[in-house]
Amino acid sequence: MGLCCYRLCENVTTECVSAGAVVEQMTMVQLQQQKTTYTKTHLGVSTLVHFTQINLQHNKSATALICKQITNLMTSVVLIQEPWVNKHKILGLRSKDSTLFCGCNEDVPRTCVIAKGIHSYGLPQFGSKDQTAVCINFKNFNKEYTIVVASIYMPTDSTPPAPATERLIQYCNHNKLPLIIGY
């Protein structure tokens, strides 16, 4: 389990919390070459983005805890592995003003991404039951930024990276997009 940043952050802080699962929280304070601390709101989108990566291990209590944490944040991106699932549906992660993305609809999902307070859209061409990819757009000082985030479940019986992950990395490299992977 971890978080990988490709061409994105120079200064990142991490914090670990335990409640039946491990939470890694990252605050993005610098983006690419710009040396500006993001603490202001501009054009309706908060430029302080909280990144959280968690493996919920299908735990209801951990799901409730992460939902409570999301509720207290204005802008957040949460990369989740092993969400609480029943009958092929992810449960307990709906939060006000947030969007839940899932990499597949036909199989039991093992990953999802939650985006709150930031313009985002899914990249289903890179989705599977083990991978959810989302593109995030925001402005800072009238400059547009686009990053791609992905939540990836890596089973121990498979050889990484999966073909969907390789395609996502190639897509980001070809389009010169920063990529954050939570696994």
Helix and strand topology:
Blueprint: E1 3-6, E2 12-18, E3 22-28, E4 41-42, E5 45-46, E6 50-55, H1 60-71, E7 76-81, E8 85-86, E9 89-90, E10 98-102, E11 111-116, E12 119-122, E13 131-140, E14 143-152, H2 163-174, E15 179-182
Parallel strand pairs: 6-7, 14-15
Antiparallel strand pairs: 1-15, 2-3, 3-6, 4-5, 7-11, 8-9, 10-11, 12-13, 13-14
Structure, described:
By secondary structure, the protein is mostly beta strands. It has a single domain (3-182), classed as Deoxyribonuclease I, Chain A (4-Layer Sandwich). The chain has 2 helices and 15 strands. It has helices at 60-71, 163-174, and strands spanning 3-6, 12-18, 22-28, 41-42, 45-46, 50-55, 76-81, 85-86, 89-90, 98-102, 111-116, 119-122, 131-140, 143-152, 179-182. The protein has a 6-stranded mixed beta sheet with strand order 2-3-6-7-11-10, with no helix packed on it. Strand 6, helix 1 and strand 7 (76-81) form a beta-alpha-beta unit. The chain is globular and about 40 Å long. It starts with a strand and ends with a strand.
Give a concise summary:
The protein is mostly beta strands and 183 residues long. The protein has helices spanning 60-71, 163-174; strands at residues 3-6, 12-18, 22-28, 41-42, 45-46, 50-55, 76-81, 85-86, 89-90, 98-102, 111-116, 119-122, 131-140, 143-152, 179-182.
Number of strands: 15
Amino-to-carboxy terminus distance: 5 Å
Structural class: mainly beta
What's the CATH architecture name?
4-Layer Sandwich
Q: Are there runs of 5+ residues with pLDDT below 50, and where?
A: 5-47
**Helix residue percentage:** 10-25%
**Spatial strand order of the main sheet:** 2-3-6-7-11-10
Tally of domains: 1
